[in-house]
Amino acid sequence: MTFRQFAYRNVVRNRRIYAAFFMASVFSVMVFFLYSMLLFHPTIEDKFVQEFAIVGMGIAEIILYIFTVFFLFYSMRAFLQARSREFGILLHLGMEKRQISRLIFLETMLIGTAAIGVGTGLGFTFSKFFFMIVREIVMLPSLPLYVSWKPFALTIGAFFSLFILISFIAPVFIKSGKIADLIRGERKDDNQYTYSKVRGYLGILLLGLSYVLATLTSNAIVLKLFILLPPIATLGTYFFFTDSAPLFLQRLRSSRRIYWQHSRLLSISSGIIRLRENARMFFIVTIVSTIAFMSVGTLASLTSFASQYRAMNPLGLVYVSHPENIEEAKHIAQLTHELNEEEIAYSLTKFKVIQQVSSFSDSTVNILSLDQVNQLANHLDHLSIHLDEGEALFLPQSNSSYKNLNERVVKTELGDSHVKVKIDGAYPYQLFPSYSIGSNVIVLNNRDYQRVVFSTLRGKDTSFNYYAFHIPEWQKTKDIGLSISDTVTESFLLESKGTLPYAFDNPGLSYSIIRMTFSLLLFIGLLLAGVFFLATGSFIYFQLYTSLAQERKKFDVLRRLGLTDYELKKIVNRQLIPQFFFPWGVAFLHSSFAFLSLQVIWDALAEISIVKELAIVLIGFTFMQWMYFYLIRWRYLVHIKASG
């Protein structure tokens, strides 16, 4: 048998241990390849979509690659240390350390090459399905499958170099010492897993502090907490697993009433040992799981913003024209012509908005007439307003502003017109996009409004025209008024050209961009979360199967002493459930409190609730974790019972 054959048989013999590691590597390569396929797609001609795809996929590939580096290094370190007995026997039989290094190099490259080949093959196989999903998300007419050497070269080059690097560095992870110590294998001195009561209480204190701060956060300090809380929570999590949890279990062990009960003695004792041995692994699983929860949850909250976009933008098109605008008639004619040409039903309400200074607040107030407001309200199927002379009503810019304005009663005199009005409450519906018509808007009785108009004829004209297009099928307007939108955008980006005498807003176009952006980000985040999820599972899978031989011997002895299959399953459950759900539960708790802070941000930005989306994300992860647990437990029980 040649040396290469020996390396190959080593991999095949340990295939059960390497299975989860291999699967996670394959999935990482596949996702990386899919991102590369979209990154180099030749038919994406739209400038924004192309730039966004390049930036989004590029960042995702960098994150994925960095995580894969960490994952592979951690896994290889654990694999090699678990095989210390095997290496001790080989050294005892005369193999040199140089040959051990060569053996590890061949084994790592064999697994890496297979993972790259399978991952790239699966990636290309699912490329068409991937393009179909992306095409629907970004609303492209077509995104055909193509063949190019660039995605293959980038994927194979990136991961092949990574596996070569790991192959050279991996021998450093082998424990040094006497051959006899290596042959003794995984036996560990109990003193190696000591814990500190001070660090134990400190871990609980840090986690409690981070949870309290996340709960009590406000708009004023939320951004500062987003910088401060992650390091506090991370350090607290590390101390919790290395010191706080062992401290609690040791207290539990000292209680004979709880500890000395049937199979609890074995389960708790085994749990303490596993927790001490795998504290760092639990910490890593918790942090990675938290990142997966947070990334998907944050992106899902962005999707919630997109889904509630219509409520914040009740109009289909908005055109604002100031007195010096000479293109007003031309632009309105263009918009109506394009709407008619596309056969999009609409209703147009023109407002003459007059600006006056309020004597109550010494600030500018935008004034609308009752007839014009009622016309738009009827188009939107809202209630009409009735106002007597001298009465006025606030028009809210958002739901929260309505709650504040509806409780206010203001008596004021309006600027040069000297019209005295009493503003009592607010209209219960949002008629205009937030702040598109100003931040302080009131509606007057028609006679009072005409008196204000008459005063502007004698002095400086402080009015502007506001064209409100109500379009039921508003998402179809993304191609309406593109030339006007381009001019407004260009003027905004190039401030040196001055301010345009008009403004134009197309919520349908904005929504298509927002929807595409957020949906693509969510899709990218789900793929990354899938990699994280498989990686965390592989950590646990590896820890279980590296100690499988010892567990077989232990349960074989217990079965000879009369342990039933029911009691065996009960003990296995008590051993596996903490390993699967203890770090996952801590990550769940971390994410829940972090989402409280995220909700504060969304309340400030868009006044929307993200509870539904975040609940779906957490429930989805919970379901996948249970499925993964039952799958691993089933295979674990099969291997345990095989010894009988």
Gyration radius from CA atoms, angstroms: 33 Å
The proportion of residues forming helix, as a percent range, comes to: 55-70%
**Unreliable segments (pLDDT under 50, ≥5 consecutive)?**
none
Net shape: elongated
Distance between the termini: 33 Å
Overall residue-averaged pLDDT value? 79
Q: How many individual helices?
A: 23
Please state the structural category: alpha+beta
Strand order of the largest sheet: 5-6-4-7-3-2-8-1-9
Q: Biggest sheet: strands, sense, closure?
A: 9 strands, mixed
Number of strands: 9
Strand content: 5-15%
Family: Belongs to the ABC-4 integral membrane protein family.
GO cellular component, one term: plasma membrane
InterPro entries: ABC-4_Integral_Memb_Prot, ABC3_permease_C, ABC_permease_BceB-typ
Pfam families: FtsX (PF02687)
Model description:
It is a multi-pass membrane protein. Belongs to the ABC-4 integral membrane protein family. The chain is α+β, with helices and mostly antiparallel strands and 644 residues long. Among the domains are: 1-187, no CATH class; 314-509, no CATH class. Helices cover 67% and strands 9% of the residues. The chain has 23 helices and nine strands. It has helices spanning 3-13, 15-39, 47-82, 84-92, 97-125, 127-138, 149-169, 179-184, 197-215, 222-253, 256-259, 264-277, 279-307, 309-312, 328-341, 370-379, 399-405, 446-458, 482-493, 507-546, 548-560, 565-605, 611-641; strands at residues 317-321, 347-357, 364-369, 391-394, 409-414, 419-426, 441-444, 463-470, 502-505. A nine-stranded mixed β-sheet has the order 5-6-4-7-3-2-8-1-9. A hairpin with a 6-residue loop joins β2 (347-357) and β3. α3 runs parallel beside α20, α13 runs antiparallel to α20 and α13 crosses α22 (565-605). The protein is elongated and about 105 Å long. It starts with a helix and ends with a helix.
